[in-house]
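Appendix C. Worked example: Bicarbonate transport system permease protein CmpB
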Amino acid sequence: MKNQSTVLGIMGLLILLALWQIGSLILAQTMPLANMLAPAAALGSLKTLLLGGQLWEHIFASLQRVGVGLAFALLIGVPVGFALGLSRKTEQTASPAFQFLRMISPLSWMPVVVMLFGIGDAPIYFLLAFAAVWAIILNTAAGVKNINPQWLELGRSLSATQSEMLLKIMLPAVLGDILNGLRLAIGIVWVVLVPCEMLGVNEGLGYFILDTRDRLAYAELMAAIVLIGMIGWALDSMARSAAKFWQRN
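Step 2, the predicted output written as structure tokens:
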């Protein structure tokens, strides 16, 4: 079954590659520059950029921003999720406001955060954390609500303190849900990252895309797009593997 899934996945990627090639050929009929968007040009440029080292500083800068944004989202989202899951009144009070805020695109806050924090990494950290925190809050709250009541009764019968109940019973019980929320948050953050890195920074994959556009280096632009997809796929795979590993154990 696993081999079949792998084969089907490879077939899907090959179909996507074929559609990419066909699309670039069609565009090239009216737009000669479209030849630079073709798979061969993009993948060749990606290889050159990686081997030449021009992309690594941008990759590391983007991954650092993602890591900091997710860390802030976890620091805020997990305690808030516990508060919502443990108290029905807290959930009823906070849910309308949270649903309202959750539906606002993080990118719409760009002018506000630039005014507050200036340009640089600080507004990017805010926007990424804002984008990621909702998935973590909702999954954590759902996990808390679904904790087996017998586990809690066992803890009380053993005279466990509140901190012991939280750290030794509740947190391990909801860690799988937190990891699932983190996986969703990674997907959201990685999508939001590129436009966020167009806020006046001088490194990162979003900045690199702007730079290639200004230089009319379209093969490098497509190479960066492919790389963004590959890194996002790798991050999602790692988060999914971590969640599955925890559920098995």
